[in-house]
Amino acid sequence: MKRIGKYLLAIGLAMLLMPSMACAGGEKVVDKSGKEPKWLNGMQEDYLIYSGEAQTIEDARDKAMMAIKAEIASSVATNVKSSASHYVNESEDNGKFDLKAVFMKQIETKTANIPYLNEISANKAEDYYWEKIKVNKNEFKYRYHIKYRFTKLDLMRMVDEFKSNEAKINKKLQEFADDDFKSYKSVEDMEKRVTALKTFQESLMQEDDRRKTCATVLDAYRKYFTQISIRPIEISKEEAVFAPYYGENQLTTQKKPQMKTNCLTELQYFSDGDKCKVTYDYNTACYPDEQNWLEVIYTFSGKKVSNKFFIK
User: Fold this and answer.
1) What is the pLDDT of residue 119?
2) Which structural domains are found in the chain, ordered by start?
């Protein structure tokens, strides 16, 4: 850490000297932003000095800034020193699906991994210097040099912010992994949890291994929906009262089921919040010596859940 400023500056200076030598090979400076600054060919601790070349001055400046951002991202990644392992354990315990995630995030040198790089911009550079260079009779290019202050304290701040952000992401994913839906009172709340996990998954980078963990947790969530059942509470020749259950927990739902029957007419569905009810006419078309039934079919998070009630 003591030598990071000199190390980064040495890299920037090496890149800077290459185009300078090219000028001696026949290129001619036809315009420039001002007097050539002393820092252009010097070394200063706690500064990054990079250059970019392009046919327009804006593109040359952007290339120089991209090089600075890449160097800062690399420095952060190097100092995070995270492990390169990421896995998920699944186990079946007394019929209860249990998902335990252990996170050891691999940190790669990718600027997109560090959202704080958005703070770094050309208008925060301490100094700049550009040259317009004649390459040949009809071709020109720009070389843009940027002097950007980046201290050891800046580096440690970014490292700490990066670690803090990673910890928040891992904690949130752990919360999703530990959720077994026992505390939910309605099917809609369970579905909202699935939507929240999908949104969280989409917020992660495509290269992030935690997206795979999200997919595994989503598979676990889908298993929870297959454990929902529709249980009868009271069945008569006038009405069927029932409710969805997850395990032994009664749930509510605002969804209206699809209804099928072999003989019942004038079917009407009601929900009073705690229970679901279907009223019907039994006497018009049903025969006592037949198996007369009402089937209710729900779709919860893409999973069909149904039950057939026999009317006697």
Assistant:
1) 80
2) 1-81+124-159 (no CATH), 228-311 (2.60.40)
User: pLDDT tens, 240-272?
Assistant: 999 999 989 999 999 999 999 999 999 999 998
- For 143, phi then psi, to 5°, come to -120, 120
Token couple for 147: 């002097």
pTM score above 0.70: no
Separation of alpha carbons 148 and 1, rounded Å: 18
Kindly report the average pLDDT of the chain as a whole number: 81
What is the residue type of 39?
W
Complete edge-to-edge strand list for the sheet that includes strand 258-261: 258-261, 292-300, 303-311
pLDDT tens, position by position, 93-107: 443 333 332 223 334
Rounded Cα distance between 265 and 280, Å, is 6
Q: CA 182, CA 190: separation in Å to the nearest integer? A: 10
First-to-last C-alpha distance (Å) of the chain = 82
- The DSSP-derived string for 232-292 is EEEE-SSEEEEEEEETTEE-B--PPPEEEESS-EEEEEEE-SS-EEEEEE-TTT--TTS-E
Q: Cβ distance 72 to 31 under 8 Å?
A: no
